[in-house]
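EI: anyone free to look at a 639-residue chain?
SC: sure, send it
EI:
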Amino acid sequence: MDSKEEASHGMWPPISLVTCWFAWKRSISIFTRCGRMNRIIYESRDAELNEVELENLPGGPDAFELAAKFCYGIAVDLTAANISGLRCAAEYLEMTEDLEEGNLIFKTEAFLSYVVLSSWRDSILVLKSCENLSPWAENLQIVRRCSESIAWKACANPRGIRWTYTGKPAGISSPKWNEMKDSSPGRNQQVPPDWWFEDVSLLRIDHFVRVVTAIKVKGMRFELTGAAIMQYAAKWLPGLVKEGSGEDANNKDNVSANWKGGGLHMIVAASKDDISNIQMKEQRMIIESLISIIPPQKDSVSCSFFLRLLRMANMLKVAPALVTELEKRVGMQLEQATLTDLLIPSYNKGETLYDVELVQRLLEHFLVQVQMEQSSPSRQSFSDKHGYESGSPRRNNANSNAMARVARLVDSYLTEVSRDRNLSLTKFQVLAEALPDTARSCDDGLYRAVDSYLKAHPTLTEHERKRLCRVMDCQKLSIDACMHAAQNERLPLRVVVQVLFSEQVKISNAIGNNAVKESTAGSHYSHPVISTRKALLEGTPQSFQEGWATAKKDINTLKFELESMKAKYLELQSEMEVLQRQFDKMGKPKQASAWTSGWKKLSKLTKMTAMDNPEMESSQVPTADPARKAPRRWRNSIS
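SC: here you go
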């Protein structure tokens, strides 16, 4: 049986990737359709030639076998699974129209253009089969045409889609794009806008980038593009999914299956270290590619996704320029972050447990973003998209709300990282003072962070404790925080006194305001009663009386607490005054009066004069008072 008969019976001998055996004398006519084989045989001029070496044949032995069958005249079944390899092999073998009309290049091109590119599922399968055909598939524009076809179908109106979509079982094949007249009840349901996410996420990262780029060019909404990127990252980056989420197990199964299927090429014979390095390189490439295609608009992806991507980027040592770009994007929407996502570990040995400097940079980017939104009216921002004018009260209110949320987030972060003994006082202070004073209406969160830092660092000096407490404003503490601070032994005494003084000022202001309100009760308290009259009338008289009695009891309790606090403060103030007077008395030495000091000087001078002139008459001795008469030396006679 000759080679032609063997081929007709489906017994074509196995073909190697490198070498092709054939009996050229008996089958030389079949290669009239193959320009490369004709040239090789003609140039060899060897009558005994029975072995030809084909280097880097695209598609491998399967594609060569189909091409050889086509040369023998055997019918070849073209499918989405073999068309890309067969098209590249036909180009490699130079099976052009110059040799024979209707050659293999023409037939494969026609199948690609009229069958594959008109079908959603076939375009996905062909693009995925091109992963092992580089650079032939790129040079023949197969990747570009499939990517544009997928992008065009993804951007089409979902109401016109009536076929099975998004990751359904592999046995269900989707019909062609132009076959939309199926009246089955299951295909008339409304199609969600994210129907294409699952299928596109099956592609390799470079082909996924090509598809997303084409989708962005065709005007897809940036929210949908960002959602597709997040789904792709969740599938191919196992460490990106939050722990404990329901998607974790499913994504792990999908990732392991896709890795085995050739999505991320692994070397099976490599060691564990080599496999780990290959995985890191693949994941680093995925992260860098995803960063480059994320839409530039704010809120295109969630801040949580950005922070998890930033965590993996730091761990995998992604290019610094891309990390900086990620940090800027996080700063644009930092008010949406959560404490869990913000606790990014520090991968530098010997430093703090969490990357505090990273959070500081994120705060700087956030403040720059807020300042730019306030100063430049034409800047595209979230408020502008919703019709807010620059400088309008609604926009200013949105900025202040974002600042307040970031302040609460920073306070919670400081409370968490303050337990780290390696956290220096300077880093804590810089991060606490990064936001302006107007960002916090209450400093209770800062007080908790300061108290937590004092607990974890008991060896701080008095100066360091005073320096630490400067980050909070005692006048912004609530009553509960003031009560706790007044009994906190870790705080410096000066801070405790400031807390008590600020609380006394608050109590005085509250009493003064209460007195003013009571004097004008008739005019000011009429509106609340009228506004709640309907609600009061709906209840029974007994329930109304009970509610009023409870309210009066609460008011009396608050008044009693205010009075007791005022009495305690006055008592402390009087005790401080007594202690101050005692301290002044103990500190100053006793000073004699000028009159007494004069007498002492005069008596000393008199003693010195008497010692120098012992025979001086008593009349010559100076007296203390010149007007005073000298004592008489005789007695007056009685008679």
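EI: The chain has a mean pLDDT of 74.
SC: 👍
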